[in-house]
Design goal:
By secondary structure, this protein is of the alpha/beta class. It has 17 helices and eleven strands. The chain has a domain at about 80-180 and about 275-315: HypD, alpha/beta domain 2 (Rossmann fold), CATH 3.40.50. It has a six-stranded mixed sheet, with helices on both faces. A hairpin with a 3-residue loop joins strand 10 and strand 11. Helix 9 packs across helix 14. The longest helix is centred in the N-terminal third of the chain and has 22 residues, at about 10-30. The protein starts with a helix and ends with a helix. It binds iron/sulfur cluster.
Length: about 375
């Protein structure tokens, strides 16, 4: 209640911050010589807050809030979904989260292809939706059947997997198919892309609150250090985001470009959750990872270390990684949406051939996907 009062229901504070943003934005725009001050977020929940509360409508013309890679479900490559579908069709029990269940492969629109885990289950495969890895462990122990858990998520989810492996809670009949991703390498990739493609460069970044609670606010210091871009870690109330935008403008104005754990110290420490980091490093190793519609980003994923290879579905079942092939359904612009190059409404299929009830592309499936957020709450452009 106190937090609500401070960060959500305080209209006077919101008004005051918005006025300061309006005052400062045109000055900063001139100072940095850019018509648009692009500020990118890297978290589906920040996109949700921005859209749900209509924060774009509060921005001056010079400030553009763009969504970046912030949805792990959206970026899970089609090849991973296809591999797990194949295992389900071969008789393995597959455990998955609810939004991954409906995630379409690149082939889902083709006749005679099993295009999602939901379609596999409709054909009789044993695909079970779980809320957590713990649920899958309990169920696999009871069933004793050869099983596979489809491991999706960013740094926020990974510690919950790591601890269970470390504490030897995972039964031998449950393999782990890792599609785990790391936020910071993808954030850096997106920012570099804007620069190299001749687009308006990103002028500031809003670091993800949940992810930063694990990896620490310090993980974003490379933006000011290497790219001269201010980075602000904020929370998930509207005033958190407004205050983040103002801090970025203040940094750009003063020339003192920093990374800041603004007022989200209530959750995020500069060093993050060191215990969780240790657990992750004990169980997982850094690997190059494929991001859907984008391709391979170096050292942007995690897979089980050799000590845990007995649980590694790829190794145990001889699944070979194929070179990445473009993996979005025809016409889908999820890759551009994910990289902040296009808004969901730039896609001609948005809310026509692609809706939350009948998603055509991956960004419309999970509630963390920008297309799904815009579909539900309006674009507020
Ligand atoms: Fe892809 Fe649908 Fe978004 Fe278009 S609206 S980019 S098809 S998910």
């Amino acid at each position: 209640k106190q937090i609500d009062a401070l960060f959500r229901e305080n209209s006077e504070l919101a008004k005051s911050i918005t006025e300061q943003i309006h005052k400062l934005a045109p000055i900063v725009s001139k100072e940095i010589g850019r018509e648009k001050i692009k500020i990118m977020n890297f978290c589906g929940s920040h996109e949700w807050v921005t859209t749900h509360y209509g924060l774009r409508a509060l921005m001056p013309e010079t400030v553009e809030l763009i969504p970046g890679p912030g949805c792990p479900v959206c970026v899970t490559p089609s090849s991973d979904i296809e591999n797990v579908i194949k295992l389900a069709m071969e008789g393995y029990t597959v455990y998955t989260f609810g939004d991954v269940f409906k995630l379409p492969t690149v082939k889902h629109y083709k006749k005679d292809e099993v295009g999602s885990l939901a379609a596999a289950r409709a054909l009789g495969a044993d695909v079970r939706i779980v809320y957590s890895f713990v649920d899958a462990i309990e169920d696999a122990k009871k069933s004793g059947k050869p099983s596979v858990f489809f491991g999706i998520g960013f740094e926020t989810t990974t510690p919950s997997y790591a601890v269970l492996f470390e504490k030897e809670k995972v039964p031998k009949n449950l393999l782990f198919y890792s599609s785990l991703k790391l936020t910071a390498p993808a954030a850096e990739f997106a920012v570099r892309l804007h620069k190299s493609k001749g687009l308006v460069p990103v002028s500031g970044v809003i670091g993800p609150g949940h992810v930063s609670s694990i990896i620490g606010a310090i993980s974003w210091d490379f933006f000011p250090r290497e790219y001269k871009i201010p980075a602000v870690v904020t929370g998930f109330e509207p005033i958190d985001v407004l205050a983040g935008v103002l801090k970025i403008l203040q940094d750009l104005h003063s020339g003192d470009i920093t990374y800041t754990n603004l007022e989200y110290k209530r959750v995020v420490k500069y060093q993050g959750n060191v215990y969780a980091q240790v657990e992750i490093n004990k169980v997982f190793k850094l690997v190059d990872a494929i991001w859907r519609g984008i391709g391979s980003i170096p050292k942007s994923g995690l897979d089980l270390r050799e000590e845990y290879s007995m649980y590694n579905a790829r190794e145990q079942l001889g699944i070979k990684e194929k070179p990445w092939d473009y993996d979005l359904p025809p016409g889908c612009r999820c890759n551009e949406v994910t990289l902040g190059i296009a808004y969901p409404t730039d896609c001609p299929m948005f809310m026509k051939a692609c809706t939350p009830a009948r998603p055509w592309g991956p960004c419309m499936v999970s509630m963390e996907g920008a297309c799904a957020v815009w579909a539900r709450f309006g674009s507020t452009e």
